[in-house]
Amino acid sequence: MNCYVMTLFPEMVEQGMRTSILGKAMEKGLLTLEAVNIRDYTKDRHKKTDDYPYGGGAGMLMQAQPVFDCYRAISEKIEKDGAAGIAGNRKPAESLVHASESGLPASNTRVIYLTPQGRLFSQKMAKELSKEENLIFLCGHYEGIDERVLEEIVTDYVSVGDYVLTGGELPAMVMVDAVARLIPGVLHNETSADCETFHNDLLEYPQYSRPEEWHGKRVPEVLLSGDHRKIAAWRLGQSERRTAANRPDLYDRYCRKQHYIRVLTEKGKAHHIDMTESLRRGRGEIVEASEAGILIKDEEAKVYMLAAFDADQAEEVVGWVPGDGSGWQFSVHQESLLAPLGQRFPVSVRLPVYHVVYTERTAVSVPKHLSFRKLGEDYLEEVMSRYHMATDKGYLEERLRGGHIYGAFADDRLTGFAGTHQEGSIGMLEVYGEYRRQGIGRALESFMINLHLSMGYMPYGAVAEGNQASLGLQGSLRMCMSKGLLYWVW
Ligand code: ADE
Predict the structure, then answer these.
(1) Alpha-carbon distance 93 to 253, whole Å?
(2) What is the three-state SS of 4-20?
(3) pTM here?
(4) What's the CA-to-centroid distance between 145 and ligand 1, angstroms?
(5) What is the pLDDT of residues 27-58, one digit of tens each?
(6) Does the C-beta of 160 come closer than 6 Å to ligand 1?
(7) Ligand 1 centroid vs 112 CA: distance in angstroms?
């Protein structure tokens, strides 16, 4: 990821961000950060970048011209370089040329203006931004920036909290830090970003290190017990207690989710597993829920999941889906929802599937002669040509880039692959023709089950109606099948 910070104080940003984990991420080439001095782009003889506000009022405003030309120079650079990184330690003045008059702004780059008037920054926003290739941060000073240039270049107005700082540099640094640590490879422990504070609406539990006793305080006994289940339960209890005490707003949301996880489980554990897992893993948000049913949205996967608790309430549940639904897929849990859904949205595909769920907690054995490795983007062409259900190249590219597809290798030769779909199910299973009937499909599925178990998930997948071979495989792995069909609709 390449981050550009437009600022009047580039040293502040550069010095603040070169240390520790982010400095290492820059050395590894995972992140580049360039603080670009807006003053370098002023056309004023005295290098001025501010002036009095029309209509009077306190203080000075940053003028449109230097901000716009600075932005245009960055945009040109992004367009010229493509994704090619800029060395993290290069001085801005050396690497950026002044904007040419003809330079057109890059249209697909998010430009974030740091302002107390903006949307409140959150972990969710950080996650969303971590998927971008380039980000431009605009730091204001004095009393703000001429509105006209903001209208032209800014895509997102963001605040880091309900207080006023002297400039946007510290908020920009806060954002770069929170976003960059979510880029795969930046943190040593890739799962740590997944199970920490704000994941799943809970604050983190207390942690202890050596010695066992300090200032007369002993580490809680359960943490020394070696019993992982007990430790997990203790930590969950602590997280809940802390959240209830410090963040009642988060705790209410958490309790509501837990309630509907229970309701959906009672109404069919395997049938609703995509909904309950989506809520448990902190991906899905409840849009609306009542006695009538529930609507969950997974914003990242662009999937709405619908369940009606009674056939005559289906219309009400469909009515909860906002907008025109374009670009979204629907996971429909009752047949009664299909007709009202079809009346509201122009859907063309309806795929009936069964859910299969691995409900045990113990790992499945995997043959020793195979090794499993993440497939990177360099496997895109191969995966695209081999995967029997490949239609969307962009989707497979995104899955590979995120490290969600694994290959099974025998003697260093790729024999097949499987992965995790965006909304969380196991899928994309393919065994190469020449390696079929050797247990590789089963081994891949077993590997994926173990991987999901290690992340604290309940492993599940979906099997298209009529795919007896796949149902047979899932059954032999003791996966439970949903009683009824559900429908993937788009
Ligand atoms: N600039 C000044 N105060 C700010 C805040 N709270 N968030 C973002 N940018 C700011």
Answers:
(1) 48
(2) EEEECCHHHHHHHHCCH
(3) 0.83
(4) 13
(5) 899 999 999 999 999 999 999 999 999 999 88
(6) yes
(7) 12
